[in-house]
Design a protein that fits this description.
Blueprint: H1 3-17, H2 21-28, H3 34-44, H4 46-63, H5 65-68, H6 100-136, H7 138-152, H8 156-167, H9 171-181, H10 184-198, H11 201-208, H12 213-249, H13 261-267, H14 277-304
Helix pairs in contact: 3-14, 4-6, 4-14, 6-7, 6-9, 6-10, 6-12, 8-9, 10-12, 11-12, 12-13, 12-14, 13-14
């Protein structure tokens, strides 16, 4: 080997041992997981962040209701019946002299608690039925679809009113009844998603190598339907909240003196001319909460949709 060849070989080896600037940049760039990417996209989504801030504000106010409320929500001030908003009563009083601000804060607890419990029951009922119907198909699929069609043949609010009228009003009965008549969307969405996943190669391969149905459902089907159902949960929460408020407004839901927004709205209906604040503030509370959930749900749908362009 000549001297020139030796020098050329050394220089080539030194060039190979030292990464260029592009390699250094790639090595220095941290690898982000998918949830970190989705979280960053969510933070850039203005509507979703506005809805999240609104919901968090209402949730914090509901949690701190015992400390933020100027009076007990049942306390009556008989000298200030239907009093207008003032420094003593920031949102005024109702027809029994009870402070509206205190009742709204405690009502937020009822609204959020009922909505979360109802949606949780709907998920527990609807998602497993949709999974087994889409995965096993056949007669089981026909039976689940027939059951869903039976419940979906009637408007959920009308069906809930009929059932509550039969079993009696109350907080517990309202939650159970609304959940039992509103689980169908989770079954339909889950079934459609599972039918698509059932034909994917990784599911077919798992079945071919001897994977049990329970293992395939748990390891391959369930993780791939979580995102879809999470978005559906956020979009279902405002519907449940409106249904609970409507039932209470009509006298079929939560009963007085429990501070529920729909019942408070109904209590102020006879005094719309002389004391409009009795119904206005509960209506605004319902409106803001529903808007917050809708904005958050739409934002999550945009962020978690793999076909969305960013």
């Amino acid at each position: 080997m000549t001297t020139s060849d030796s020098i050329s070989t050394k220089s080539h080896a030194q060039h190979q041992s030292k990464p260029d600037s592009t390699d250094k940049l790639l090595l220095a760039t941290p690898v982000r997981s998918q949830w970190q990417i989705d979280l960053q996209r969510l933070c850039r989504h203005r509507a979703a962040m506005a809805g999240l801030i609104l919901i968090l504000t209402i949730a914090v106010m509901a949690f701190l209701a015992p400390w933020l409320s100027p009076y007990p929500y049942r306390a009556q001030h008989l000298d200030f019946i239907r009093a207008a908003p003032s420094t003593q009563f920031p949102l005024g009083t109702d027809s029994l002299g009870r402070d509206l601000l205190s009742r709204l804060l405690y009502g937020a607890r009822i609204a959020l608690f009922v909505a979360l419990v109802v949606v949780a029951i709907e998920v527990v009922i609807g998602v497993p039925l949709g999974m087994v119907a889409g995965y096993f198909r056949g007669r089981l699929d026909v039976a689940v679809n027939t059951l869903a069609d039976m419940f979906w043949a009637f408007p959920p609010l009308v069906l809930a009113m009929g059932v509550v009228a039969a079993v009696g009003p109350g907080l517990f009965n309202t939650m159970v009844v609304i959940a039992l008549v509103s689980w169908v969307p989770f079954t339909r969405v889950t079934r459609a998603k599972v039918l698509s996943l059932r034909q994917r190669d990784f599911v077919q391969a798992s079945i071919a190598i001897g994977g049990t149905h329970g293992w395939v459902l748990r390891r391959h089907i369930l993780p791939n339907i979580l995102i879809t159902n999470l978005v559906l949960v956020t979009l279902t929460l405002p519907t449940v909240l409106l249904t609970v408020a409507a039932l209470s407004f009509l006298g079929f839901g939560v009963q007085p003196p429990t501070p529920e927004w729909g019942a408070m709205l109904s209590e102020g209906r006879p005094y719309l001319q002389e004391a409009p604040w009795i119904s206005t503030f509960p209506g605004l509370a319902i409106l803001l909460t529903v808007i917050g959930f809708n904005l958050l749900g739409d934002g999550l749908r945009d962020v978690l949709d793999p076909k969305q362009t960013w």
